[in-house]
Specification:
Helix content: 40-55%
CATH class of the largest domain: Alpha Beta
Number of strands: 14
CATH topology of the largest domain: Rossmann fold
Shape: globular
Radius of gyration: 23 Å
CATH architecture of the largest domain: 3-Layer(aba) Sandwich
Strand order of the largest sheet: 11-10-12-13-14
Number of domains: 2
Structural class: alpha/beta
Oligomer: single chain
Length: 438
């Protein structure tokens, strides 16, 4: 084997060993589960065995094997780097792109109280050994807001026409008319993640906005990135005092089940598994606003100065796990994580018990993924629905409606993952209204 291929082989071996050692030592801080850590140790170890074995037993083929593996790795990580460079938010801190910063500054110059969209998952940071903590503290105490800045113009993202989508937040930072919080009776309350919040679509045309047009007074406390425990927290902090007659538990099949691992490893969130636990967030809104405004302005100033407020740990984690590449080609990012149906059942049972205690009724709404819609059923879907059924919850499963639609893919935003298009939102709203009227 000539010196060139010896060098390539040696570099490949060193790289594989380095990645393996890195995952073993720092895995807890970069990977959400033991299963994911094992996967990303097993892969490099298998490559190492192949390289060593080829050198001993197949020296003639070693250059071909080495160059093929090197080319494959280079292509995969180059693709991931390209995708990662276009991400506007890397979980941990908000990254404000120059275009978004310019737009926010322009809105502020017009006298509008404009800010970047903030949400719970974007306000936590890794603290080592798999644990996560909130980046926000009030009077020296860790606090995790479950929403963004109140009574502000919130800039979300660009829609399919490359126009910025914004919404006016209510008294607590959610996309509702502020008057809903003074109502004596609330017909419907909803918890969920980015689809429920209305990601990248006008608020009035989101499925919650369309549902509200038929049911005035609906309160939506969904926020991007929320999983089941964050939903339980939002229900307890914001919906319980309002006692809505119906609660919609909107479950996104794409990631909610795998979000449980991250939430369980975030003590300020997992504390909500204790019956009656609350941070008292409604009473803390003025202090929360001050902390979030400071957080948002710091990120904006950094962007204007030409910097980037990226959580580099998360960027490395995404790069190492090929996160964005796997999402692009439709591989479930939670495939390496064993779904915790037991914990999901516990969360749903607690939520249903609390809703029932005030005389309400909770519906479990399954929001399909592109895989579900195209009849390539998400592996966890059956277990998710069984878990909800075990709690005797009425279930609104939209999968069949999505599959029966003439063009299922048109129900999703282009390059938007599992986020719904305007057509998708309209279909979801119609199905929800039909489901709760029966």
């Amino acid at each position: 084997m000539n010196r060139f291929f010896s060098s390539i082989w040696g570099l490949a071996v060193v790289a594989v060993i380095a990645v393996t050692v890195f995952v073993l030592i720092q895995g807890g801080a970069f990977f959400d589960s033991i299963a994911l850590r094992l996967l990303f140790v097993g892969g490099p170890v298998s490559v190492l065995i192949l390289l060593l074995g080829a050198r001993i037993w197949l020296p003639v083929w070693l250059p071909t094997i080495t160059m093929s593996l090197a080319a494959l790795a280079a292509a995969l990580f180059a693709g991931e780097a390209i995708l990662l460079s276009s991400v506007e938010v890397i979980w941990g801190t908000p990254e404000i792109t120059n275009s978004k910063a310019d737009y926010i500054v322009d809105l502020r110059s017009q006298g509008r109280n404009a800010h970047v969209n903030l949400f719970p998952k974007g306000l936590v940071e890794r603290s080592g050994l798999g644990s996560m903590r909130s980046a926000i503290s009030i009077d020296g105490e860790e606090v995790l807001p479950l929403t963004g800045i109140s009574q502000a113009t919130i800039v979300m993202c660009r829609n399919g026409n490359l126009e910025w989508e914004i919404f006016e937040s209510d008294l607590f930072g959610f996309p509702n008319p502020s008057e809903v919080w003074s109502a004596s009776s609330v017909p419907v309350g909803a918890v969920g993640d980015s689809n429920t919040q209305g990601w990248c679509v006008p608020t009035s045309q989101s499925f919650m906005g369309l549902t509200r047009s038929s049911i005035p007074g609906l309160i939506n406390v969904g926020a991007a990135g929320n999983g089941p425990i964050a939903d339980l927290a939002a229900l307890r902090e914001y919906l319980a005092p309002m006692k809505p007659k119906i609660v919609l538990w909107l479950f996104t099949g794409a990631n909610d089940i795998t979000d449980l691992d991250r939430e369980l490893n975030t003590p300020v969130l997992s504390a909500y598994l204790d019956l009656g636990h609350s941070q008292g967030l409604k009473d803390l809104q003025p202090q929360i606003d001050k902390a979030l405004v400071d957080f948002s302005i710091d990120a904006l100033d950094t962007a204007i100065a030409g910097g980037r407020t990226i959580d580099y740990r998360e960027a490395v984690r995404r790069m190492l796990t090929l996160y964005d590449l796997r999402n692009l080609i439709g591989i479930d990012r939670g495939a390496a994580t064993r779904p915790n149906f037991g914990l999901l059942g516990e969360v749903l049972a607690m939520a249903n018990s609390e809703v029932t205690a005030w005389g309400g009724k909770m519906y479990f709404v399954y929001l399909p993924t592109p895989r579900d819609a195209t009849s390539r059923e998400l592996p966890n879907r059956a277990g998710i629905l069984r878990t909800a059924a075990a709690q005797q919850l009425p279930i609104i499963d939209l999968t069949q409606s999505f599959q029966n639609f003439s063009d299922p893919i048109s129900l999703f935003q282009k390059n938007g993952g599992s986020h719904y298009s305007l057509v998708g939102h309209a279909l979801v709203a119609a199905e929800i209204l039909d489901g709760i009227s029966q």
